[in-house]
């Protein structure tokens, strides 16, 4: 067994193994779970700015946008029915994530991914064929079930398959695939908006079937993780053979022994949701709640869901708004790719702190420009609109190499096996709850707070950056089954052990 050193200077186990094509391909296919999430975020944000879509399903919003010269710029899209279209997915995802916890624990990670792909496929078919708002929201419910299962299982799969020293890069692939999905959706929206017959939104919604199909195929072809095989009483020899294939070496006894020990503890756990409330799991529980909450109050979903709407608010046209969303999507994807290459070198905390400061500065500047230059009617000059777009791109880049991927990475790697599935469900559920809250309330908040909405999110960025600085230990290069040592050495969390 090789020996390395952790951040405090004490010795820590580093398992044998190397990067293999098998683990790369497995993780690439599993990361397609992020593709369906990103595609949905991009598509829903884009179609809600398409005039043909609004005219058919939300005529009141359409009339305010086109004909009403008295309604404030900030309030033209304020419709609870319109936000229900976007946010209904997250209520369904919230409920589905707890069912997914049981499926993931009882039947394995790949089974949850398969169910997620099937539900998302059904949702895409219903959405594309919708003839009224009720059918549209039913489709969103199925999409939410798919996203709930995928978000619960895919981060776990990636963190368990990846070698410890490359786990950050592999797990960040989930956020990268979210970015790819969002960018693809923005490009499709830009193209389908130009279909003169007005049915382009149907094509945008129906094409969600493509990433869903990729996830289904991946789930059918992928092996389950060694952790999952041991948890389901599969013979140790089969788990060892899979681990040897994943790591590219026959010498996997040290890692296998740790997995067996964790599995034995896990099998004694009959009530994981009750167990996670125990004192010894308090640090992990706090992170399972705090990190996804903070990820949502960065304000990123304001940009992800409503960037075309936001750009229309400041006076850009329909096509220009959709193209602006494409530009910010490209920036987000590239920055996440950068994060994949540097996260295991510089660590999680460093990227959290840099990204938090970057997002804070740009939120304050965007809020200041809009407060000074955008009135209740009309728009702002093209120069200031371009400056807002540039600042939003800088903000998206900050999220792309910090809270975007790390908000999924850190929770997926800090939980012991016996509570891992339950804790991941809590992470996903908290994420969905506050995604729903932000999605459902943003347009009303924009109407009432106006430019102050950006200062609201900037305030949260100060709080979450301080939280990371004080309470989040560094987890890079730490084997996943030995992660409890980072808490035992932390100045605050060590008192819970």
From TrEMBL:
<feature type="transmembrane region" description="Helical">
    <location>
        <begin position="200"/>
        <end position="222"/>
    </location>
</feature>
<keyword id="KW-1133">Transmembrane helix</keyword>
<dbReference type="InterPro" id="IPR044778">
    <property type="entry name" value="MFS_STP/MST-like_plant"/>
</dbReference>
<feature type="domain" description="Major facilitator superfamily (MFS) profile">
    <location>
        <begin position="26"/>
        <end position="476"/>
    </location>
</feature>
<feature type="transmembrane region" description="Helical">
    <location>
        <begin position="319"/>
        <end position="343"/>
    </location>
</feature>
<feature type="transmembrane region" description="Helical">
    <location>
        <begin position="114"/>
        <end position="135"/>
    </location>
</feature>
<feature type="transmembrane region" description="Helical">
    <location>
        <begin position="350"/>
        <end position="372"/>
    </location>
</feature>
<dbReference type="GO" id="GO:0016020">
    <property type="term" value="C:membrane"/>
</dbReference>
<keyword id="KW-0762">Sugar transport</keyword>
<feature type="transmembrane region" description="Helical">
    <location>
        <begin position="21"/>
        <end position="39"/>
    </location>
</feature>
<keyword id="KW-0813">Transport</keyword>
<dbReference type="InterPro" id="IPR036259">
    <property type="entry name" value="MFS_trans_sf"/>
</dbReference>
<feature type="transmembrane region" description="Helical">
    <location>
        <begin position="452"/>
        <end position="473"/>
    </location>
</feature>
<keyword id="KW-0812">Transmembrane</keyword>
<feature type="transmembrane region" description="Helical">
    <location>
        <begin position="285"/>
        <end position="307"/>
    </location>
</feature>
<dbReference type="InterPro" id="IPR005829">
    <property type="entry name" value="Sugar_transporter_CS"/>
</dbReference>
<dbReference type="InterPro" id="IPR045262">
    <property type="entry name" value="STP/PLT_plant"/>
</dbReference>
<feature type="transmembrane region" description="Helical">
    <location>
        <begin position="422"/>
        <end position="446"/>
    </location>
</feature>
<dbReference type="GO" id="GO:0015145">
    <property type="term" value="F:monosaccharide transmembrane transporter activity"/>
</dbReference>
<dbReference type="InterPro" id="IPR005828">
    <property type="entry name" value="MFS_sugar_transport-like"/>
</dbReference>
<dbReference type="GO" id="GO:0015293">
    <property type="term" value="F:symporter activity"/>
</dbReference>
<dbReference type="InterPro" id="IPR020846">
    <property type="entry name" value="MFS_dom"/>
</dbReference>
<dbReference type="Pfam" id="PF00083">
    <property type="entry name" value="Sugar_tr"/>
</dbReference>
<dbReference type="InterPro" id="IPR003663">
    <property type="entry name" value="Sugar/inositol_transpt"/>
</dbReference>
<keyword id="KW-0769">Symport</keyword>
<protein>
    <submittedName>
        <fullName>Hexose carrier protein HEX6-like</fullName>
    </submittedName>
</protein>
<keyword id="KW-0472">Membrane</keyword>
<feature type="transmembrane region" description="Helical">
    <location>
        <begin position="81"/>
        <end position="102"/>
    </location>
</feature>
<comment type="similarity">
    <text>Belongs to the major facilitator superfamily. Sugar transporter (TC 2.A.1.1) family.</text>
</comment>
<feature type="transmembrane region" description="Helical">
    <location>
        <begin position="384"/>
        <end position="410"/>
    </location>
</feature>
């Amino acid at each position: 067994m090789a020996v390395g050193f952790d951040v405090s200077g004490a010795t820590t186990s580093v398992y044998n193994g190397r990067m293999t094509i098998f683990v790369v391909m497995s993780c690439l296919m599993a990361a397609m779970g992020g593709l369906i999430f990103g595609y949905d975020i991009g598509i829903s944000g884009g179609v809600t700015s398409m005039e043909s879509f609004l005219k058919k399903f939300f005529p009141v919003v359409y009339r305010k946008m086109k004909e009403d010269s008295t309604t404030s710029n900030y309030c033209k899209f304020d419709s609870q029915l319109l936000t229900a279209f976007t946010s209904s997915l997250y209520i369904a995802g919230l409920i589905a994530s707890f069912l997914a916890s049981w499926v993931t624990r009882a039947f394995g990670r790949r089974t949850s991914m398969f169910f997620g792909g099937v539900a998302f496929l059904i949702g895409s078919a219903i959405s594309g064929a919708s003839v009224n708002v009720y059918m549209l929201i039913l489709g969103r419910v199925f999409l939410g079930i798919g996203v709930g299962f995928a978000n619960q299982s895919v981060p776990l799969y990636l963190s368990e398959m990846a070698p410890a020293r490359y786990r950050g890069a592999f797990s960040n692939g989930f956020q990268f695939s979210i970015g790819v999905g969002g960018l693809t959706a923005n490009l499709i929206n830009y193209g389908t908006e130009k279909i003169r017959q007005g049915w382009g939104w149907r094509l945008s919604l129906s094409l969600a079937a493509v990433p869903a199909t990729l996830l289904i195929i991946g789930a059918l072809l992928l092996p389950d993780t060694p952790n999952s095989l041991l948890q389901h009483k599969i013979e140790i020899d089969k788990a060892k053979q899979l681990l040897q294939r994943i790591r590219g070496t026959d010498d996997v006894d040290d890692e296998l022994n740790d997995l067996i020990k964790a599995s034995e503890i896990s099998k004694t756990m009959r009530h994981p949701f009750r167990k996670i409330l125990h004192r010894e799991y308090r640090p992990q529980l706090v992170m399972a709640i705090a990190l996804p909450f903070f990820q949502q109050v960065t304000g990123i979903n304001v940009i992800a869901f409503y960037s075309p709407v936001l750009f229309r608010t400041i006076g850009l046209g329909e096509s220009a708004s959709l193209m602006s969303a494409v530009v910010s999507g490209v920036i987000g994807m590239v920055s996440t790719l950068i994060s994949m290459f540097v996260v295991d070198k510089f660590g999680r905390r460093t990227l959290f702190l840099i990204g938090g400061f970057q997002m804070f500065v740009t939120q304050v500047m965007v809020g200041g420009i809009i407060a000074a230059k955008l009135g209740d009617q009309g728009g702002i000059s093209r120069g200031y609109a371009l400056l807002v777009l540039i600042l939003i791109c800088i903000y998206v880049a900050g999220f792309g190499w910090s809270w975007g991927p790390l908000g999924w990475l850190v929770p997926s790697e800090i939980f012991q096996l016996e509570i891992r599935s339950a804790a991941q469900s809590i992470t996903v559920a908290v994420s969905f709850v506050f995604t729903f809250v932000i999605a459902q309330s943003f347009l009303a908040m924009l109407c009432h707070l106006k430019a102050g909405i950006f200062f609201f999110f900037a305030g949260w960025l100060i709080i979450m950056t301080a939280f990371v600085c004080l309470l989040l230990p560094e987890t890079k290069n730490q084997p996943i089954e030995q992660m409890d040592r980072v808490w035992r050495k932390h100045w605050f969390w060590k008192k819970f052990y």
